[in-house]
Model the fold of this input.
Amino acid sequence: LAKTTQPISMDSYEGQEVNITCSHNNIATNDYITWYQQFPSQGPRFIIQGYKTKVTNEVASLFIPADRKSSTLSLPRVSLSDTAVYYCLVGDIYYGQNFVFGPGTRLSVLP
Amino acid sequence: EAGVTQFPSHSVIEKGQTVTLRCDPISGHDNLYWYRRVMGKEIKFLLHFVKESKQDESGMPNNRFLAERTGGTYSTLKVQPAELEDSGVYFCASSQAPQAYYGYTFGSGTRLTVV
Done:
């Protein structure tokens, strides 16, 4: 299973764009990159998933360079409610392998 | 659609007692997973069901833990006898495909406290 590395914490202000980068140097050919968000007392919530280049949905964008050894989750114009822990997971989404949650990145959005 | 439902939301039991956690996945989701976070550590995988079959139980910590998924619907996770180190939050998740496209949908978890 590919190991991921993320910053432990980040601070931002309301209205700013936040970029969280995840390193996954030993990503395998069949691996996808998936990001989850977790609020206190809740289970993780799926945000976005991608394989290469750029993926965008209504809440975030995911940028993946050509070598796929890292990825960047971009949250546009964050609000206080985006304060949460963000996890980057890497693995074969079709194989059903168990995924490894690292410590994640604790994002604090300040007023 | 209804989400993944777990109950109880909280459970406090004494060391040596038995506790059973239940998870109701999203209807039609064949894949069901159990994860847990203990003592402020990282979320760890416990096991994965595909319908009623255990696909991967490599994360089960020991034989005090027994997971079942009768008829491929809801799942139970029994801890017998419970130990202090079992305290933590137990999450259940489900997905239609293993994790394709939309990831897992997690429940809110069961907070287990063993005293």
Notes: Chain B has a mean pLDDT of 92. Chain B is about 0% helix and 50% strand.
